[in-house]
Design brief:
2 domains, alpha+beta, membrane
């Protein structure tokens, strides 16, 4: 029995060095995310922007959600919170008070996501969950400032409820993504990628190269669907674990590289890449240490000697090539063992809850989660939905025109820096968006259910335009959407002009 259990637990045995790389990757992406968000402090997070607090509370607020960023409508307060989040992320990257900084980073990430849900995308859910599970993972045990104050680990591998949760979470992302793709474009006709690349709002140059080849796109559509559906199973094969993990990592690195070159999805591909290092097997980490650690140590020695005269410490464990890598429970006091048992129990319960939540998103059965149980998911933001291009790809496409009328009666387009008005399609529609947050906002702007948000965007753009004395004064601004529906066989409907909102000074 013990031998069987030892075999079954192999898929969940992780290298603590790989978990350290996971920590660094996640912290780095959090910093990039903050940098992108910080370019729109006033627009997205203040009362002077597109979603004032009273509008958020009236239309987009869940009473179980919490947000420190809603404590003030001033962009200056938001800037302070962003600096705190960046400081915590840097500390997490360096491994300084790792568990505390993981909690702080998670709290502030949840807070900023709750402040403006109109600009959120699927990758935000994954980034949030990586930090959440990181609270319970030993990802600060090595390659961290904290490790200098600890004795060397007796084993470089670990297995716990948290490692199970991390592996299962990665599988859920792709399983649910595939199961939610129920449209015929994914399962029968294979035209999903054709319609995705027909969306000018997200089309990148790499997508333009693929677009003329319908059979290639059809093959890639089915390859994507079945890869997402079947690939996660390899994470649970208890034999040749390192080989299967290598297949999983390599396939997804190439998959998300392809997405990043063809579709404008913001940080989605980076977040997915950042989720993978924790799966690196011991053999891979041994190779990386042999190649990278001596170079890093030599660089660190030069820098620290130059600044303080401090010497880089000797390795805290024997060469990993010679360490016997096996899951090991260190000798610990009874209180520590009790704490570990409680932690594993809590993580196990949360994992079952999350699996139940995901099961509910892809099925309609008697086992569906009732509303009275959802408060826990909203409170800790472990709610998740992996409906990327699901159940089918949008057919409605188009581009925005901010049609301004000057005091002299001239028509200009604020979306093109005040150029003379034209209804012709831009050469690159995707270039109209400063970043993916604005692209996602514009997508939500179209929905009738979000009509409440339209005047705030219109008035914000009118105010920003008027603050520049070099701009001509406007007497009216209309937000126009030139709607163009994608049809089969490289056809589209004639663009139609839709006035979404109008405002005046």
């Amino acid at each position: 029995m013990n031998r069987v259990l030892a075999v079954l637990r192999q898929p969940f045995v992780l290298d603590v060095r790989a978990l350290a790389l996971l920590r660094v990757a996640v912290a780095a992406v959090v910093l990039v995310d903050l940098a992108v968000r910080a370019t729109d402090l006033e627009a997205h997070y203040s009362n002077m922007g597109v979603l004032p607090l009273h509008v958020l509370y009236e239309h987009n607020w869940n009473p179980y959600e919490l947000s420190i960023h809603t404590s003030s409508g001033l962009w200056q307060v938001q800037a302070v919170l962003f600096l705190l989040a960046a400081s915590a992320a840097i500390a997490l990257l360096l491994g300084y008070r790792t568990r505390l900084m993981t909690i702080v980073s998670w709290v502030l990430l949840v807070s900023v996501q709750n402040r403006n849900p109109l600009i959120s995308q699927g990758g935000d859910d994954l980034l949030r969950m990586l930090l959440f599970w990181g609270i319970f993972l030993p990802w600060g045990r090595v390659y961290s400032l904290d490790s200098r104050q600890q004795p060397p680990p007796t084993s470089l591998t670990t297995c716990s409820a948290a490692t199970v949760a991390y592996v299962v979470q990665l599988a859920l992302v792709y399983w649910c993504t595939a199961l939610l793709k129920s449209g015929v474009e994914w399962t029968q006709t294979g035209t999903a990628l054709y319609y995705a690349l027909s969306l000018d709002q997200i089309l990148l140059p790499g997508g333009r190269l693929l677009y003329p080849y319908p059979e290639l796109m059809r093959g890639l559509t089915f390859a994507t669907y079945y890869m997402e559906l079947l690939l996660p199973f390899v994470l649970f094969i208890p034999w040749r674990v390192a080989w299967w993990r290598g297949l999983f990592i390599g396939t997804l690195v190439l998959f998300h590289l392809g997405i990043s070159l063809t579709l404008f999805v913001g940080l989605f591909f980076l977040i997915n890449w950042a989720s993978l290092p924790g799966l690196l097997p011991p053999a891979a980490m041994d190779w990386l240490e042999r190649k990278l650690v001596p170079r890093a140590r030599r660089l660190g020695t030069r820098l620290t000697q130059w600044r303080t005269g401090w010497q880089w410490p000797a390795p805290t464990w024997r060469s990993p090539v010679r360490v016997h890598l096996t899951a090991h429970i260190e000798h610990a006091p009874q209180s520590v063992k009790l704490l570990r048992a409680v932690r594993n129990t809590v993580v196990g319960v949360l994992l079952v809850y999350i699996c139940w939540w995901n099961f509910d998103t892809v099925t309609s059965t008697r086992l569906a989660m009732r509303e009275q149980f959802r408060w826990l998911g909203y409170l800790f933001r472990i709610d998740q939905h992996w409906g990327m291009f699901a159940p089918a790809v949008f057919k409605d496409d188009g581009w925005y025109i901010l049609e301004g009328t000057t005091a002299e009666g001239r028509k200009i387009d604020l979306n093109r820096s005040g150029a003379p008005l034209t209804y012709a399609k831009p050469a690159a529609v995707v270039s109209l968006f400063p970043n993916d947050r604005w692209r996602k906002y514009s997508e939500n702007y179209l929905f009738v259910s979000n009509a409440f948000m339209r005047p705030y965007y219109c008035n914000y753009m009118l105010r920003i335009w008027g603050e520049n004395s070099a701009h001509p004064r406007l007497k009216q601004l209309e937000v126009i959407y030139m709607k163009e529906v994608s049809l089969p066989d490289y056809k589209t409907t004639k663009p139609s002009r839709e006035v979404l909102c109008g405002c005046a000074p």
